[in-house]
Amino acid sequence: MPALIVPRPTTIGHFLIGATIVIAVQVLVLMPLNLGFLGSPWPYAIIWAIAGWSVLGPDWRIGGLIFLLGLLSDAICGTYIGTNALIYLLSYGATLLISKTLGFSAKGELSESVVIIGFYIVSALLTGLIIGTIPNLLRMLVPALLTIALYPLIARFFVVTRDVK
Amino acid sequence: MARRNSMRRGGAGTGTVVSLIGITALASIALTLALTSPRGAVNAAMNDALAWGSKIVSTPVKWAQGGGDWFSSFFTNSDEVQRLRSENLALLEWRDQAKAMAERLDAYEVLHSVQNETTKGEITARMVSENHGPFSDSGIVNAGKNQGVGADWVVVNQYGLLGRVISLGNNSSRILLLTDGESRIPIMGEVSRGRAILTGDKTEAPHLAHLNTPPIIGEGERILTSGDDGVVPRGIAIGVAGRGPDGKWRVRLNSRQGAVDFVRLVPPNNFPPPVLRAVAPTIAPNAAAVPVVNGVAVPASSAAGGAVLPLDANAASIPTAASPSAISQAQNNRAGNRPTQAPPSKAKPKFKVVVKDGGFTPPAAEKAPNDPAPEPPKTQEAPEAPNP
Is the CB of A39 less than 8 angstroms away from the CB of B134? Predict the structure, then answer.
């Protein structure tokens, strides 16, 4: 890439930009937009962050950031504090596991986001079973589809890359 | 491909192990919080910040809704005016009838010394945010502690009940909507007076639990709050009952007829619980054991608190497990067979009397009305009549 064009952001820059996008989308949940039985349409921005940040492998700082974003989501949505944090961390853990084993690079962003959405839904079901509140899966449909559809467009803000020396 | 230049750090080094332990610890903290924290457990400052953010992000939606209404009014104005005129005529008739009925109701309540449930200190606010996620259905209104709102206040809009307040900020409150999985509201049918619990299940139409068996709430019947919990005021409209596609009784909510904007926050009744503990009634073990109060035999039905059928001649005609139509038929028969009211002096005592100490004890119904109040019923063995 020519150096005169926009420089590639650093890893910290990626984290900052990614976290800002996630928070902005989470705040959009406050908008009183309702699709009837399909619920709110806003995408799960945390999936993009998990997909992009999991490239670095297990990192407790990323885990901490995801945990904080989960707590913020709980405060915004009015769920039990910790519910979304647990879902996010479970999804992150599952993504780390599978990305190390299978690797996503050959399959592209679309399939990557599909797999992580799958983890997210399973994590939500598991968390719902633990806390005794089964989630409405129908309400996860539109956000999940939007997350998958938008990820190829927005992945460049999340995918953390390091120069191979 | 975005990942082409990426490099996976990790392996089985110390950093990886530390990171995995850290992530597991965070997940454990999240789990503990989720299991122990109460619903909507964010502090007042956070709640207010969310309300402030909601005002900003919801403004475009409100504008869009207003603009849509304004635009569509061009095409529907004449029809709408005609419809409203005819509706207004009908409503004027209803208004007169309602006024007359309200006056009669007031008079009856005074006559019978009815303990009225009046609501005081209602507050009007605006719903600035709604969230319909897979785990929760909640909203935020722009009134909180500073405006006098408290926990469990009931939220209604122009159509009916919306939910109740679960957490408070200084200038905002979070509302648990009726559709949330944890919402439970005692309700009744407007006509049948059948009771049930409106149970949210994260669908648009919450279902009815603990219905009468067989259910006496009818298809299309209006559903109101019953006030049986002592918290939600009685008689607030909720919606219309009907069977859902899954066969469950559900309620189509009135409050979802239009966009939720301005709402009214109504203080809860919060009736104090009774101080004295209820004592389990004792039923006479045999025919000889008859409760006696002030020397007067008390029928078993009143002593046992309804455990025994009343000693009414027609009581046996009520079917115990029958359809609602059969029950209403039996009630009509009873009403038809009931004799016209006789003078009190000729009325027969409805319960049997016992001979005590060789003398005749008059029934309580024939006692003078200004007699002192009887003591609580005491069960004791009736003494045998002396042999002549």
Answer: yes
* Interchain contact, A100 vs B61, CB within 8 Å: no
Closest partner residue to A80 (CB to CB) among B2, B7, B34 is: B34
For A4-20, what is the mean pLDDT?
A: 70
Residue A57 with chain B: CB contacts under 8 Å: 8-11, 16, 19
CB distance B179 to B213 below 8 Å: no
Provide the shortest C-alpha distance from residue A101 to chain B (in Å): 12
On whether the CB atoms of residues B136 and B42 are closer than 8 A, the answer is no
The pLDDT assigned to A78 comes to 84
**Residue type (1 letter), A155:** A
Q: What's the CA gap between B47 and B85, in Å, rounded?
A: 44
| Count of domains for chain A | 1
pLDDT value at position A55? 80
Which pLDDT belongs to residue B153?
Answer: 92
CA dist list (Å): B53 to A24, A26, B47, B139, B149: 11, 11, 10, 13, 20
A6 in any annotated domain: no
Weakly modelled stretches of chain B, pLDDT under 70: 1-12, 39-41, 43, 116-119, 273-274, 278, 281-324, 326-327, 330-331, 334-388
Mean pLDDT of A129-143: 87
- Does a structural domain hold residue A54? yes
What are the structure tokens assigned to B248, written together? 């469950």
- B195 or A159: which carries more pLDDT confidence? B195
Minimal-distance CA residue of chain A relative to B135: A135
Q: How far apart are CA B238 and CA B160, in angstroms?
A: 5
Query: Domain containing A108 — which CATH number?
Result: 1.10.1760
- Domain encompassing residue A103: 11-157
pLDDT, position A122: 92
Which of B34, B42, B58 has its CB closest to that of A30? B58
- The shortest C-alpha distance from A16 to chain B (Å) reads 18
The answer to whether residue A19 sits within a structural domain is yes
Instruction: Give which of B310, B154, B313 is closest to B229, Cα–Cα.
Output: B154
Size of interface A-B (CB pairs under 8 A): 193
Which pLDDT belongs to residue B8?
A: 47
Contact check, Cβ <8 Å, B42/A75: yes
B207-215 long-range CB contacts below 8 Å, 24 or more apart?
B207/B244, B207/B248, B207/B249, B207/B250, B207/B251, B208/B241, B208/B248, B208/B249, B208/B250, B208/B251, B211/B249, B214/B323, B214/B324, B215/B249
**Are A109 and A155 in contact, with CB atoms under 8 Å apart?**
yes
CA distance A147 to chain B (A): 15
0.85 surpassed by complex ipTM: no
In a domain, A132, yes or no: yes
B positions 233-272 inside 8 Å of A (CB)? 259-260
More confident site: A151 or B76: A151
